[in-house]
Each structure stands twice: as C-alpha cells, then as structure tokens.
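Predict structure. Chain length: 159.
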Amino acid sequence: MPSPVSVEVIVPPAVPAMAAATTDAVVAAVGQLTAEAQAEAQLQSPTLTGGLRGAIGATVAATAASTVGIVAAVAPYSRYVEEGTGPQHVPGSRDTYTPPFSRIASWASARGLSPGAAWASIRRRGTRPHAFMQPAAAKVLPQVAARIAAAIAAVLGRG
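Prediction complete.
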C-alpha cells in the first residue's frame, strides 16, 4: 500500500523559558493553518465518489520539543492521483499491471468515456497527475512563519 500524501509543519518552541506561555498560541495558529490546508486540498481534489476528499484529514500535536501540524490524504490511491502513474510493470517481467477492468469501467462510464479505450490508455501510458496536496501546501506554507510570529507576538503583548 502506498504511503499517504502529507504536508507537515514542525514548529520548535520560540524560547524554552516561554514555551508554556506560547504553546497554546502556536498550537492554535498551526491548527488554523492545517485546517486551511485541509480545506484547500479537499477543494482541489478530484471527486467522483467523494472517497478521496473524505480521506483528507488534518491533525496537530504539541510536545515540549515542537508543534506539528499534518494534513494527509490517506486513501490507498491518494499518491497515484497526486503524482500520476506510468505503465505499471510487474517486477522481473516484461508484463504490465493494469487495475481490473471493472474499476476502470465504472470510473470511465461516469465520465462518458469508453471503458475499453480508458483501460487500454491507462495500460499503455499510466495516468496523469492531478495534484491536490501540492497546491494546498503552496497556498498555506508561505503564511506559516508570519502567522506563528503574530500568534507569539499577541501572547507577549506586542501584536
């Protein structure tokens, strides 16, 4: 099974002596950022059944060493959608692997495509990428430092 597609933000404590005072503010800021990234990834993800969109989640964990925010798509096929595939070669063989026709047929039919042509195309060329996590990360990550700095400044009375 492929690994999930994820984006992680790791924030070390600002100043160890003030870690307790700033941790709540940093956790809240990272929580808001991960929620925004999750919403953006869900918006960008392709949908037919809603399975991929529903498999995108966010979590925040805080320890004495850091605050970590993670947005991950955990559907078994998430990575294939995000990165696309090439023809799937069976290890040690010249044969290629193609998902069962029945899976491709229902997907193709829902889009008005010929199931046989779609299956043959995927077998020959693989699938194109449809990035949804990368655009979400690109939208949210540039804001991380400023938003965390603002949260800490607000706690210290400088915001």
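Summary: The longest strand covers residues 5-11.
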